[in-house]
Amino acid sequence: MAITHRHITTANEAGGSPLLPISTQTNATTSFYDANKKNLGRKHTAKQLSDKSVAVVAALAFLGLLTPMLLFGNYHRGNSSSSNLRSALGDGPVPRPKNWKTWGYHGFRDNFRCHGYLSNKTKPLPTMEDWETMLKAYNQVVDPTYKFDPDIPPTQGYRLNEDGAQPYYAKLSPGKGRGLFASRDIQKGEIVHDGNKSDVVFPDGLSWKRYMFALPRTMACDQAEWTFTQKFKEGGPMRVVSSLNIAILMNEGNTVKDVNVQPEDENGKPSEYSAVFYAMRDIKKDEEILMDYADYDTDFNAAGIGHQVEQSKMEAVKTYVHQAAMGWGMIFRHVGSTLGLGS
Fold first, then answer.
1. Please, are residues 318 and 326 in contact by the beta-carbon 8 Å criterion?
2. What phi, psi does 338 have (nearest 5°)?
3. Residue 83 pLDDT > 70, yes or no?
4. Average pLDDT over residues 67-82
5. Are strands 276-279 and 191-194 parallel, antiparallel or unpaired?
6. Among candidate residues 86, 107, 113, 138, the one with its CA nearest the CA of residue 217
7. Neighbours of 248 (CB within 10 A)
8. Among 46-50, 277-281, 300-304, which is the least confidently predicted range?
9. What is the CA radius of gyration of the chain?
10. Cα–Cα distance between 86 and 10 in angstroms, integer?
11. Structural contact between residues 178 and 123, judged by C-beta atoms closer than 8 angstroms
12. Distance CA 283, CA 182 (A)
């Protein structure tokens, strides 16, 4: 029977929709009025000043409410409409804003509102329909040739060797959420998982970003949680890696003593470049399979999905300051006009 292999898509193979242009920001200047106290005294009576002072206070109070609303709206729109924001808060695909290429890994988690969803430790296991949706999106924007293992459905994993599927199954783990558990007794030194036959490796960071926008919001959040980075050889490039079957649900041990599998090279030594996990000790049937996430170096910057995050944050800060200056300028001009200042 056919055995699938870790799928590494090259940049030339990757498909995808045409890129949207990065949004440009227009410059705006603010101006402030120059109060002339002598003219003010001549033009207005005490009663008029009292009435207009109330207008000033009301205007400033309104600004206190308006400015945060404007800033909040500008940040979350991401240069898209409010209807897009409502869509993003639902479970449909999140519309791709003009500045989508500047989003890094954490930017996706923030803008897709993943925190609340991912913090739920009672989420059900992905269904066959869920995996098929993820595959369809992957085929559309990354690689049209990738397929599931022909013999083992993704809800069960993949074919590890001639004996069949890998020795674990998926279920909810108390306090951890989705997890993997031994389907039989596993002996120390036995291969438990082979990412070469299970994982998908993105050709570059941009293809991963396209993939995220092609998924329903919660599935994109799942993929964000499942995404990791790895080098396959010393000195090699850092790649973005995930999976389209239950193998990606492996949890981390709470302590070093909890960990019972680790990636090793062909000489049986721990290796961050290996995708083959071996049992570090005997593992009983129905015991949870746990790794140490530190076995792989997490470097989103080097993999192309993190180096723009700080730049994006700085752009957001600049936008906030710009909008605040414009807001205060408009209010001051309005107040000045109301009081007849500068005339």
1. no
2. -65, -40
3. no
4. 38
5. antiparallel
6. 113
7. 24
8. 46-50
9. 27
10. 35
11. yes
12. 7
In the chain, which ranges are continuous DSSP H helix?
A: 37-43, 46-77, 82-89, 105-111, 114-118, 128-141, 205-214, 217-226, 300-303, 309-339
Q: How far is CA 73 from the centre of its chain?
A: 20
Report whether 20 contacts 98 (CB < 8 A): yes
Q: Would the pLDDT of 22 be above 70?
A: no
Amino acid at 158: Y
Q: Sorting pLDDT into bands at 50, 70 and 90, what band is 59? A: low
Name the pTM for this structure: 0.67
Measuring CA to CA, which residue among 17, 16, 19, 21 is closest to residue 203?
16
Which residue bears the tokens 């404007």? 70
Written as one letter, the residue type at 104 is G
Local confidence band at 252 (pLDDT 50, 70, 90 cut-offs): very high
pLDDT of residue 323: 47
Q: Which one-letter amino acid corresponds to residue 137? A: A
**DSSP character for 263?**
E
Displacement of CA 189 from its chain's centroid (Å): 35
Which residue, chain included where needed, has tokens 């479970």? 91
For 265-291, letters b (16+ CB in 10 Å) and e give: eeeeeebeebbbbbbbeebeeeebbbb
The answer to whether 251 and 199 are in contact (CB under 8 A) is no
Q: Are 264 and 278 in contact (CB under 8 A)?
A: yes
Whether 190 and 279 have beta carbons less than 8 Å apart is answered as yes
Q: Which amino acid is at 66?
A: L
Q: Give me the residue label for tokens 């890998």.
A: 166
Q: The tokens of 198 are what?
A: 């299970």
Q: What is the pLDDT of residues 118-136, one digit of tens each?
A: 999 999 999 999 999 999 9
